[in-house]
Design brief:
Layout: H1 13-65, H2 71-78, E1 83-87, H3 99-112, E2 119-122, E3 130-135, E4 141-146, H4 157-193, H5 209-256, H6 261-288, E5 295-297, H7 299-312, E6 316-320, E7 327-329, H8 331-349, E8 351-360, E9 363-369, H9 404-414, E10 417-423, E11 429-436
Helix pairs in contact: 1-3, 1-4, 4-5, 5-6, 6-9, 8-9
The structure holds adenosine-5'-triphosphate and magnesium ion.
Length: 439
C-alpha cells in the first residue's frame, strides 16, 4: 500500500528537489569547512609547540652563559608572543590541565633535557596559563611564563567568500531543478488537454535526450489513441451499415405477415434496434470530434426553422425571445444539441419552450424548458452518462437509448459551449446551453 506524503513535505516536486539539493550542498559545504578549520588548528598548534621548544632551548643556553648581572636586560629580547622568561622561582599551583598546556610543558621539559630538570604548574585565572620552573647551572631559579593561544583569527573575507559560494550553489540548484521539472509540467499540460477530440497540442520533441524521449513517447501514444478511435468508429460504422440490410429485410418480411399483437411488438423492437444503431454511430462520431467548421449564422432563423419542423409534425414547441445578431458557431452541432433537448422535453413533458436571450459578451444563451417530472437533484449529472436512463423512463412509451444527453454534452464540449440541467421552481426541467462565439 502506498503511504500518503507527510504534511511537512513541500507540495511541489520543484520545492522538494530544491530543498534536498540545497540542504545536501549546505551540509557538505559546512562539513568541509569544519574539516579544513580542524586541520588548520592542528597544524598551527604543532608548529607552535615545535617553535616554542627550539626557541626556549636556545634562550636557556644563552641565559646560562651570561653573567647573572646581565641576565635581566636580556629578558625582554627573549620574550615571545606566547611566553616570557622571569628570573625567580615564580608561583606555585596545580598541574596544568589544558591539552595544549600539557603538550607545550612536556615539549619544553623534553627540550631542556636532563641538564635542566624542569617542573610545571598552572596559574589559576582566565584561559590557559602555566609556568615552567628550572635552575640554571649556577643554581639561579628561572621561570618561563606561558600563555598559549591556539587559534589563529579568521580572515575577514572568509565569511563573505562563503556566502558568495552558497549563493552560487543556490542559483545552480534552482536552475537544475527547473530544468528537470519544466518538461514534466509540459507533459502534464499536454495530457490534460488530450480530450475526447484528440486535438491536444504536440509536446516539443527537443531538449535533453530523456525529455525528448518522453515527449516522443507521449506524441506516439497520442497518435496511437487517435488511430484506435478511428478504427473503432470505422468498425461501428461498418456494423451499423451491415445491420441496416437485415433490419430492412426483417421489416419487409413483417409487412407481409398477418397483423397481430406479436407483429406490432416486433415492429417496435425493430425500430428501437434501428435508432440504437444510428445513435451509437453518432455518439462515436461526436467522441472522435468529427466537427464541422464554424460559420456565421442567424440564430433566430435557425431556431425558427427548428421550431417550425416540430410544429409541422404536430408537436407543441414554442419559441420566446430573440438573439438579434449574427453569430459564428457550428450550426449542425448547435441544432443537434437543441434537437436532443427538445426531444427530451417532448418525450417526458409533452411540450417544450425554447427561450433565447439576446447575445452579450459574445455569448448566446438558449434554454429549453418543460413542465414535466424533472430529474432528481442527485442524478442531474448522471443523466449525461451514455446509456443512462432514469428508472421511470424505462418503459415503452418513452423508449430511447439514453444517448441523447451524452451526445449533446460531447457536442457542446467540442464547440466550447456549456450545457447544464436544473429543475425549475414549480416543476419541470430547464436545460441551459451557453455558446461562446467561435474565433
Ligand atoms: N426533460 C426531461 N424531463 C425529465 N427527465 C429527463 C428529461 N430529459 C432527460 N431526462 C432523463 O434523462 C435520461 C437521459 O436522457 P437522454 O436524452 O440521454 O436519453 P433518452 O432520452 O432516454 O434516450 P435518447 O435521447 O437516446 O433517445 C432520460 O432517460 C430521462 O430519464
Ligand atoms: Mg433523449
Amino acid at each position: 500500500m502506498r503511504m500518503p506524503s507527510p504534511r511537512w513535505l513541500p507540495r511541489t516536486l520543484f520545492a522538494r528537489l530544491a530543498a534536498i539539493l540545497c540542504i545536501g550542498l549546505v551540509a557538505a559545504q559546512g562539513a568541509s569547512f569544519w574539516l579544513t578549520m580542524m586541520e588548520r588548528d592542528m597544524s598551527t598548534s604543532n608548529m607552535m609547540v615545535n617553535y616554542i621548544e627550539r626557541e626556549v632551548v636556545s634562550s636557556v643556553a644563552l641565559l646560562d652563559r651570561l653573567p647573572p648581572a646581565e641576565r635581566p636586560q636580556w629578558l625582554p629580547r627573549l620574550a615571545r608572543r606566547t611566553y616570557r622568561f622571569v628570573l625567580g622561582p615564580g608561583v606555585t599551583g596545580p598541574q596544568p590541565e589544558g591539552a595544549l598546556s600539557v603538550r607545550i610543558a612536556a615539549s619544553i621539559a623534553g627540550g631542556l633535557g636532563a641538564a635542566y630538570p624542569a617542573t610545571s604548574n598552572a596559574v589559576p585565572g582566565d584561559g590557559e596559563h602555566f609556568q615552567v620552573h628550572f635552575k640554571l647551572s649556577d643554581g639561579a631559579p628561572v621561570t618561563i611564563d606561558v600563555q598559549p593561544v591556539a587559534d589563529l583569527p579568521l580572515s575577514r573575507w572568509l565569511p563573505r567568500v562563503l556566502a558568495v559560494e552558497l549563493l552560487v550553489l543556490a542559483v545552480c540548484c534552482w536552475f537544475a531543478v527547473r530544468l528537470t521539472t519544466r518538461p514534466l509540467d509540459q507533459l502534464a499540460r499536454a495530457a490534460d488537454t488530450l480530450g475526447p477530440d484528440l486535438k491536444a497540442e504536440r509536446v516539443p520533441e527537443d531538449g535533453p535526450s530523456e525529455v525528448a524521449r518522453a515527449a516522443k513517447a507521449f506524441n506516439a501514444m497520442q497518435d496511437r489513441i487517435a488511430l484506435y478511435m478511428k478504427e473503432r468508429i470505422q468498425v461501428l460504422a461498418a456494423i451499423s451499415h451491415d445491420l441496416q440490410t437485415p433490419i430492412t429485410r426483417m421489416r419487409l418480411r413483417l409487412d407481409v405477415m398477418d397483423d397481430s399483437a406479436e407483429h406490432a411488438r416486433l415492429r417496435q423492437d425493430l425500430m428501437e434496434m434501428e435508432t440504437l444503431v444510428k445513435e451509437g454511430v453518432t455518439y462515436a462520431r461526436t467522441l472522435h470530434g468529427a466537427t464541422e467548421a464554424p460559420c456565421r449564422i442567424d440564430p433566430d432563423a435557425l431556431l425558427d426553422s427548428l421550431v417550425c419542423d416540430y410544429v409541422d409534425a404536430g408537436k407543441q414547441v414554442q419559441l420566446q425571445g430573440r438573439a438579434d445578431a449574427m453569430f459564428v458557431t457550428r450550426p449542425q452541432a448547435f441544432r443537434r444539441i437543441l434537437g436532443n433537448l427538445v426531444d427530451n422535453a417532448l418525450k417526458f413533458a409533452g411540450a417544450a419552450e425554447i427561450e433565447v436571450a439576446s447575445i452579450a459578451d459574445g455569448r448566446l444563451q438558449v434554454a429549453v424548458l418543460d413542465r414535466g417530472p424533472g430529474i432528481p437533484e442527485d442524478l442531474l449529472d448522471a443523466v449525461f452518462e451514455p446509456f443512462y436512463r432514469l428508472e421511470s423512463s424505462r418503459n415503452r412509451d418513452t423508449g430511447g437509448t439514453g444517448l441523447g444527453l451524452a451526445i449533446a454534452r460531447r457536442l457542446a464540449e467540442a464547440m466550447d459551449a456549456e450545457l447544464s440541467l436544473q429543475n425549475r421552481p414549480g416543476g419541470g426541467l430547464e436545460a441551459k446551453l451557453i455558446v461562446r462565439e467561435a474565433a
